[in-house]
Amino acid sequence: MSVTRKEVEYIAQLARLRFKDEELENFTSQLNEILSYVDKLNELDTENVEPLSHPVEEFNKFRDDELKPSIEREEALKNAPDRTDEFFKVPKVINKE
Amino acid sequence: MDSKYEAVIGLEVHAQLLTDTKIFCGCSTRFDAPPNTNVCPVCLGHPGVLPVMNKKVVEFTALMGLATECAINERSIFARKNYFYPDLPKGYQISQYEEPICEHGKITIELKDGSMRDIGIIRIHMEEDAGKSIHDQGSETLIDVNRCGTPLMEIVSEPDMHTADEAYLYLTKLKQIVTYLGICDGNMEEGSLRCDANISIRLKGETKLGTKTEVKNMNSFRNVEKAIEFEIERQIDILEEGGRIVQQTLLWNADQNKIIPMRSKEEAHDYRYFPDPDLMPVIVDQKWKVEISKMMPELPEKRRDRFIEQYSLPKYDAEILTSSRDLADYYEKILTVTDDYKSASNWVMTEVLKNINDRKITVAQFPVSAENLGKLIKMINENIISGKIAKEIFPEMLSTNSDPNVIVKEKNLVQITDTSEIENVIDGILSANPKQIEEFLSGKDKVIGFFVGQIMKETKGKANPAIVNELLKSKLESKREK
């Protein structure tokens, strides 16, 4: 398995990352190195092995529907890059026509 | 609709579950809290925190599965749906993808012609809601994280519907079920029930599906119907003009009654689902399933049929009375006071529902308690007051919810059943109106109504109408003989 430069561009776009040309080249070859390393796993016969979604065998870890105190708004907004008194503030996500 | 074509409609419904706390943390789900106050590191998506599943969300969703004849999967898992949007702090939504909790059910709808149709349910799964973006202030977007992590249940139908009307009926039925189960308040206007529609058209007889579009943003039952109708017509027009349907997401604009394409910026991308390693699988074994099924209340059809059987009500009455669980409960509460089933039904279907609709309130907000309405009906049946007086004091009950016995006593409205007292009144009226007696004797029966009216006026409506009629007739007849 390998990835093309175009796929790397696509993944970067999904992750909202912007790269320079040489970085894209670099990541494409690095990602391919990783993939070929992981490719070794394909040598194993997994015909009769169930896909594993969780490495531990725990299940039904629940909490009851009981209220716990929330944190103060001031604390919630403390690390926000931009804010108002009450809200997080972000760049406009839709363009007004 | 052009009869050459057939529409194929599937609905995805998101229902907000009525839990006290969020799906993965103990923050409140109260929707009217001040912005960013029902939040904690888990729903704020801070690094290093761990979500812990709210047990009630599993039970509510499984209950919905049982009510819609789904198979409850013994094992289900959570997945991450990855996308960036500012109201989703983690950068992914926790949902279920490959192994949802419920699959392969159905909801039965009754069409206008009385025939029944099964609409298949592909799956029902659990997921978390996103926060709220407020766009209309200044040059930035404001984010309120309160709604982040509110538990949702997504119900995905098979593409089994063919008209906007069927979609409307399906949605109404679905709302009826969730409100009967008490797991969602079913309010579309407030967003606790949301609906997206997948719509395509094809020539009748064709078995392959056409290219579909997805319509979002329909925030009332009527808007769902209108938007679907609009989109079907739009697609037909395109095909008729030789064009091609483009697969896209569309937004219904209720103010302008039209559909606009969602900007590509807001369009979904590649979600890269994968199992969420933070959440352990949910196992619903037989024992738990039995426990959950014990939470099942009597569902609408069953209750309707029981009303017909137990209270000898016409199907029409039973249908309306069981249309919501609150209304059916209200009706049955009246019956703890009176056993006049049909009168109770009439009062609920006329006075109660008229008032609720006029004032745009809910059954729970209706001011007259079922007990007091029951007492009122009982007083009529026991000849303490006439039906007419009952209608007269009802407005006072509406404004005060007083016990009708008290109102009747205070206003001295107890029905006059004493024959000699009524006789006195009749004699007085007759002697004051000799002209009308002449008319009666000359064959004008209608004049009886005039006398009854006068007697009622004199007694302020309190005379027992049956006694009045009987005495009046015999007195008038006796004049004929002379």
Task: Describe the protein's architecture and organization.
The complex is a heterodimer of chains A (97) and B (482). Chain A has 97 residues and is mostly helical. Chain A has a domain at 5-42: Histone, subunit A, CATH 1.10.20. Helix content of chain A is 34%, strand content 6%. Chain A is built from three helices and two strands, in the order H-H-E-H-E. The relative contact order of chain A is 0.08. The mean pLDDT of chain A is 89. The mean pLDDT of chain B is 90. By secondary structure, chain B is an alpha+beta fold. In chain B, 37% of the residues are buried. Chain B has three domains: 5-291, no CATH class; 300-410, no CATH class; 419-481, Orthogonal Bundle (Arc Repressor Mutant, subunit A), CATH 1.10.10.410. A nine-stranded mixed β-sheet of chain B has the order 3-7-8-11-1-12-13-14-15. In chain B, strands 6-5-16 form a three-stranded antiparallel β-sheet, with no helix packed on it. The A-B interface holds A 14, 16, 53-56, 58-71, 73, 76-77, 82, 84, 86-95 and B 19-21, 25-28, 34-41, 44, 52-56, 58, 75, 77, 82, 84-86, 133-135, 139-145, 263, 265-266, 269-270, 272, 275, 277, 279-283. Strand 2 (88-91) of chain A pairs antiparallel with strand 10 (140-144) of chain B.
